[in-house]
Amino acid sequence: MSKITRRRVLAGVVALAASAGLAACGSKNSDETTTTAAATETTAATETTAATETTAALTGTGKTIAIVSPYYSNQPATKEVVDAFKTAAEAKGYTVTLVDTKGDLAAVNGEMTNAVSQKASAIVLGMGDPKEFSAGLKAAKDANVPVFGLDAGSADGVTANFTSDNDFLGKTSAQALLDAVAPGKNVIVIHFDPFEPVRLRGAAARELFTAQGVTVLEDIQGDPADSTGFAKTTILDLLTKYPKGKLDGIWVAWDASALGAYQATVEAGRTEVKVVGVDGQDFARAEIKKADSNWIATVRQDWAGIANKAVTDIDAMLNGGAAPAAVVVVPGELITAANA
Fold first, then answer.
1. Does the N terminus or the C terminus of the chain have fewer Cβ atoms within 10 A?
2. Which residues, listed in sequence order, are joined to residue 216 by a DSSP beta bridge?
3. 163 beta partners
4. Candidate ranges 32-36, 184-188, 317-321; pick with highest mean pLDDT
């Protein structure tokens, strides 16, 4: 082979190698570019999805829900369900205001009217009997502001009331008392008929007592403004009126008053008298689970469940969905020493 030929061959080999090297580099850069682009697209898609989900979750942004309650600071159950509702609604982006009229039922009407004038998207009654609030309900209805109840009863102008099955609460708590008392079955009842849910559970308990031949010695209208103190004072007097052997049990429509009745039996040394309540409050569970306690049962209301169901249904309606049923019921649970 001539020198010239050898030079041409070598030049061709070098050129080929250089070309291959460039091709390899080009392939690597192309792969990296493709991978980077894919990663960028994936990140963008993930961020878009997350942003969309966040936006979807914050369906209450720009809307206000006004809670008006006559019992917020007076009743532990009211505070529990209102607080749970407020937390759940705020998590969806709603601005939630809360006014506590501290037992002043007349003031509820004025606060509802204020909420309407302040352009609330909805008003929520934190308990209270809506039949007492006709003026506030009218103001809301005239302004097309929906009103919802948290265990507040039904009335014209209330779109939906979210509550427990009060028939279940009354009969289940009454049956727990009947299962525990001695033969004879003489009981005292503490109720509060002006508050619709309590009236319903009281009626259910009385119906069961009557069906089973129980004698209701005293049928007492309680005092929500002083639930525990009123019940304690009243029962202390009645324990004197009905000595041992004359009274078997005390049925109370809500735990704050059941606590007063229970305290009276302990103070008077009358722990043979059994006590039951309704609500499933922490203080009730604590007493029920004590050894030899004569507070034998309560029926838990699922306040978190009621609040979350209310927020879900109200949110759906305020964002174009259908109105919920007039009464939305959430189940309860019997609490005894076995599960307290």
1. N
2. 187
3. 329
4. 317-321
Distance CA 140, CA 284 (A): 37
Q: How far apart are CA 128 and CA 6, in angstroms?
A: 106
Cα–Cα nearest to 120, from 92, 143, 137: 143
Q: How far apart are CA 128 and CA 252, in angstroms?
A: 18
Tell me the pLDDT tens digit for each residue of 224-273.
989 999 999 999 999 999 999 999 999 999 999 999 999 999 999 999 99
- DSSP collapsed to 3 states, the chain: CCHHHHHHHHHHHHHHHHHHHHHHHHHHHHHHHHHHHHHHHHHHHHHHHHHHHHHHHCCCCCCEEEEEECCCCCCHHHHHHHHHHHHHHHHCCCEEEEEECCCCHHHHHHHHHHHHHCCCCEEEEECCCHHHCHHHHHHHHHCCCCEEEECCCCCCCCCEEEEECHHHHHHHHHHHHHHHCCCCCEEEEEECCCCHHHHHHHHHHHHHHHHCCCEEEEEEECCHHHHHHHHHHHHHHHHHHCCCCCCCEEEECCHHHHHHHHHHHHHCCCCCCEEECCECCHHHHHHHCCCCCCEEEEEEECHHHHHHHHHHHHHHHHCCCCCCCCEEEECEEEECCCCC
pLDDT at 56: 52
Place of tokens 């009103």: 147
Spell out the domains of the chain, with CATH numbers in brackets. Answer: 64-163+304-331 (3.40.50.2300), 166-301 (3.40.50.2300)
Beta-bridged to residue 160, according to DSSP, are: 148
